[in-house]
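Working notes for the structural subgroup meeting. M.R. asked for a predicted model of this chain before we commit to crystallization trials. I am recording the input and output together here so anyone reviewing the notebook later can reproduce the run.

Input as submitted:
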Amino acid sequence: MDDFERSIPKKIGAWQASGKDQLYNRETLYDYMDGGAEVYLAFDFRQVWVRKYAGPGGGGLTLDIYDMGSPGEAFGIFSCDREDPGAGIGQGSEYGFGLLRFHQGRFFVTVMTADEDEASGKAVLDVGRAAVKALGSPGPGPDIVGFLPRESLRPDRTSYFHGNVNLNNRYFVASENILGLDRSTDCAFAEYETASDKPGYLLLVRYAGAERAIAARRSFLSSYAPEAGPEGLAQTENKKWVSAVVRDRYLIIVFESPSPDWARKLGSSVGLPAK
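Returned structure, recorded in token form:
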């Protein structure tokens, strides 16, 4: 990441690099961000390179380039907090309210300004376009996302992660880690359109072995849906349905299903690879 100091221009438009570039790793990330570091550390985060730019009117912006270890991990951290329209930068991007987020190869990038005017907004996008040229080629996303059923899927609301903190940021399940999620688990979480105006959700978790998947299902049903029968299907307090089934080393959970049949159909449509 030392190459970024040379490969990313220090002057972009009327904006000039200000101060010394900084580098933070897994041990020092909390020095850079008091809140939110645990979200990055739940992935294979390696280090973040930081540069600040000063504008002609006294405003400033910050460029952060996170080395996430692999393209799948970079997609993961990007995917867990999508809210704004795409910006056409990198493999996937969004821009809103002075914040640009995108991923390219193994890197996840943010460019942020507190000055939400037209000039600073343009500068944020210009810095992002300059930075992406230094990041190399695109890379493949996580394979588990490809197992999700495509019908009625909302692709821009699909996330990949490993830990319980990332799951609860998308959909709160429990304060305790009842699914036994950790750095060794791969999770895909997706939203699906239903006949109502409320979406349904699917969580697909890959464990190291079938025994862990079975234990996680047992723990989940005991804590979240103790009234579920052998099929792992139960109606929740809001009159929606939840289901949990194990296929090999994968746990498939459907939340907010409008009916038992919808939950069964969605769960059975997960396209797991042949053994």
